[in-house]
Amino acid sequence: STLVAGGTTDLSTVPSVAGATAIWDVELTDSGFADGADTTVTAITFTVTVASGGGANTIDDFTWSLSGTAAASVNAGTGQVSFTGLSITANDNLGSPTSTSVNLEVRAKASVTDKANLDNMTLGVSLTSVSSSGTSIATALPIAKASNVAVTVTATALNITTQPAPLTTEVIGIGFDMVVEYVDANGNRDLNVAGDTVTLTRSDTGAAGVTQGVSAAAASGVASFTGANQVVLDLPANITGTLTMTLTDNAGGSINLSASP
Length: 261
Description:
Elements: E1 2-10, E2 13-15, E3 21-30, E4 39-52, E5 62-66, E6 69-70, E7 73-75, E8 80-83, E9 88-90, E10 98-108, E11 122-134, E12 143-144, E13 149-152, E14 157-162, E15 178-183, E16 197-203, E17 210-212, E18 215-219, E19 222-225, E20 232-233, E21 243-249, E22 254-259
């Protein structure tokens, strides 16, 4: 019997927010000519390495499955993702080769270790161990996946990472820092956002506006209102209302901030 990996499925990217995505297929074929016995795979182990990026994230920040069967163990130290208790059978079929396929699937967990560095994290995958019964498997291992798999984060929201602490008194005319990041639905930063502009507007009774820190251009998914671009508010003519600030990117996404004067 033989194993062929990546014959029909060999994805090079996987989205950060999605269900289990099939990235690599493994096909088991029984030639039907050797011994009249079926071939049944009972266990498979893949070795997954972090090829680049990812920050503090490891393979344990992902959920792994094999055509819907959850991994029996994921060891970030050794890089092994193991599946046991399987029954993947290619029948002998009396002289005619038969095949059956399974897919290695991956999904980023809703909460990963390092949300700021999941984007563009690249994983290398290889098939390193197979246990079977019936006809023996002649294919030499390991089999390396032809292409690495890169995680892609697509921002759908803005998130504030730096701002004045709750109940902090900010003095009109004195600057303060604000930092905004572009994130997906799970709060992972989109490192590919560059050049997009985040604009700060203010609305309250009698407000004069913002004298500094009106806008900031994003780089690697972050827009910073810091240093010479700190946020500085004008003194409103009437401070009896609620002070509201809105951060809006040039695609229309926004965050509203409100506080009593």
